[in-house]
Amino acid sequence: MKLIIRGEWLGNAxxxxxxxxxxxxxxxxxxxxxxxxxxxxxxxxxxxxxxLLPKQLPLTALASFQGSGNTWVRQILxxxxxxxxxxxxxxxxxxxxxxxSSAHNDSVLAIKTHTFSASSSDDFQFRRxxxxxxxxLDALYSEFNRxxxxxxxxxxxxxxxxxxxxxxxxxxxxxxxxxxxxxDFYKYWIKVFPGKAYIIYYxxxxxxxxxxLEGAIRFLGLEPDYVRLNCTIEFPKPAYFKRxxxxxxxxxKTLFRFSISKADKAIGIFKQLIxxxxxxxxxxxxxxxxxxxxxxxx
Length: 298
Description:
Blueprint: E1 4-10, E2 16-22, H1 40-44, E3 60-64, H2 70-81, E4 86-87, E5 111-113, H3 118-124, E6 128-133, H4 136-149, H5 170-176, H6 179-192, E7 196-201, H7 202-207, H8 209-219, H9 226-234, H10 252-256, H11 260-278, H12 283-286, H13 294-297
Parallel strand pairs: 3-5, 3-6, 4-5, 6-7
Antiparallel strand pairs: 1-2
Helix pairs in contact: 2-9, 6-11
């Protein structure tokens, strides 16, 4: 049996040492060092997220292009830190979900926004930003489903996507032109926005949740609470608005076949923005990950 051992420090010496043991039988083992052990009882007894004290932290945007998982990030960020997140859209009342507040002031850890103009960010006086980055095709597809599926958990019906002859609808083709807006969004938050920005890569947050969350928490000026952080990862609450596991009415292979080249060009512009604003040796550039499995589908 051939055994390959890979190890890397994620964060600092007090964080996670991950050994991936990969063998021909596809067994994977994860070991931790220097971390508090948690169990379901400990995690259930954690206090609900609370409000920040006045002026405890600078006003922070949680900025994302529509469809990039902002609500999910709010949920796990609040769970991992113990502080509520806000929303410029007043989407949820303070009593609906413990992680969310309708506040958009410095009483909350970060404030959801999809805006990308100087006038909009000035209106809310953001001083820094967590910026969520997701592959443009995935983001656009998710938002299309929200708009035409009627809510955040379903899919748009087939007739919204393809015609009876199998061709793509004008509605979908028009929607894909919003790739240019995706580029404009990140140009603003990475290059134009005057405050500091921390990029949260959606893929990393899904697959390397610990290190991606820990980096975001430190950017916010908080010392990570490793009990809460590990509880968020090991005993996650169900995502409030996770899309159902029902197979979508049209597969991505069909939907994305004419848009991949445009998306690749947009990602190239995004990567150049990261390079020019943060530098090739920066942790932000090294963490770059906007992959999806589109090419594997074709």
